[in-house]
C-alpha cells in the first residue's frame, strides 16, 4: 500500500469519527458519558485528520482549504 492510499483511508476514518459525534446523544448514555465520548471522538478525529494530512501531503490540505474558501465566497451576499 502506498503512503497516500493509507492517508486517504485515515482521512475517511477521520470523517466517520466526526460523523459519530452527531449520533452519540441519541445512544441513551448519561450526560457525563456523552461528554466523555464526545471529547474522545473530537480528539481522535483531530489526530486522524492531521495524520492523514501528514501522509497525503500538504497539497491535499491546500485543496481542502481552497474548496471551503470557494464555498464560503459563493454563500456570501454580494454588496
Terminus-to-terminus distance: 50 Å
Please estimate the helix content.
over 70%
How would you state the average pLDDT, rounded? 87
Radius of gyration equals 16 Å
Shape call = flat
Q: Please provide the count of β strands.
A: 0
Return the string of H and E elements: HHH
Integer tally of domains? 1
Low-confidence stretches: none
Beta-strand content: under 5%
Number of helices: 3
Assembly type of the chains comes to single chain
Structural class: mainly alpha
Describe the biggest sheet?
none
Structure commentary:
With about 80 residues, the protein is mainly α. Helices cover about 80% and strands about 0% of the residues. α1 packs antiparallel against α2.
Summary keywords:
flat, mainly alpha, 79 residues, 3 helices
Which helices and strands appear, and what pairs or packs with what?
Layout: H1 3-23, H2 31-56, H3 58-75
Helix pairs in contact: 1-2
Task: Kindly summarize this structure in a few lines.
By secondary structure, this protein is mainly α. The chain is built from three helices and no strands. Helix content is 82%, strand content 0%.
Amino acid at each position: 500500500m502506498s503512503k497516500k492510499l493509507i492517508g486517504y483511508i485515515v482521512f475517511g476514518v477521520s470523517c466517520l469519527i466526526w460523523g459519530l459525534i452527531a449520533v452519540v446523544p441519541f445512544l441513551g448514555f448519561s450526560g457525563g458519558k456523552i461528554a466523555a465520548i464526545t471529547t474522545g471522538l473530537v480528539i481522535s478525529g483531530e489526530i486522524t485528520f492531521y495524520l492523514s494530512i501528514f501522509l497525503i501531503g500538504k497539497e491535499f490540505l491546500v485543496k481542502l482549504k481552497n474548496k471551503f474558501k470557494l464555498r464560503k465566497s459563493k454563500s456570501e451576499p454580494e454588496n
